[in-house]
Amino acid sequence: QVQLVESGGGLVQAGGSLRLSCAASGRTFSPYMMAWFRQAPGKEREFVASISWSGGSTSYADSVKGRFTISRSDAKTTVFLQMNSLKPEDTAVYYCHGSTSGDAYWGQGTQVTVSS
């Protein structure tokens, strides 16, 4: 059983920064990609950023490009999302997602609230 546990969410003023973390635990977890998604109230879950686990190549939604940075730990057990220049429209529950060859895993989510 693999578990993804997010942390680092909270309340921040517009223009501020937060760093989200997602740690994998359980049996050996070898994803080929990790990603962050978010879901705002009344909206569908949307892609934020992804990182390939082997080569480290990254991809971002246009709405966060230049403000958010996804990275992984050297031990490849944790994925991070550094969020700078936060805007009220970034308010959402942020979910960590891991893809393996046979399964997909979601974390429980962490709330990010940006006040204007």
Textual characterization of the structure:
- With 116 residues, the chain is mainly beta.
- It contains no helices and eleven strands.
- It has strands at residues 2-7, 10-13, 18-26, 33-39, 46-52, 58-60, 68-72, 78-83, 92-99, 104-106, 110-115.
- Strands 2, 4, 5, 6, 9, 10 and 11 form a seven-stranded mixed β-sheet that branches.
- The mean pLDDT is 94.
Shape field: globular
Largest sheet report: 7 strands, mixed
Measured by DSSP, the beta-strand proportion falls in over 45%
State the end-to-end CA separation: 40 Å
Total number of helices: 0
Provide the helix percentage.
Answer: under 10%
Overall pLDDT metric:
94
Quaternary structure annotation:
single chain
Give the low-confidence spans.
Answer: none
Number of strands: 11
Radius of gyration: 13 Å
Return the string of H and E elements.
EEEEEEEEEEE
What structural class results from the helix and strand content?
mainly beta
Describe the SSE topology.
Layout: E1 2-7, E2 10-13, E3 18-26, E4 33-39, E5 46-52, E6 58-60, E7 68-72, E8 78-83, E9 92-99, E10 104-106, E11 110-115
Provide key terms for this protein.
mainly beta, 0% helix, four-stranded antiparallel beta sheet
Question: Summed up, what is this model?
Answer:
With 116 residues, the protein is mostly beta strands. The chain is built from no helices and eleven strands. Strands 2, 4, 5, 6, 9, 10 and 11 form a seven-stranded mixed β-sheet that branches. A four-stranded antiparallel β-sheet has the order 1-3-8-7, with no helix packed on it.
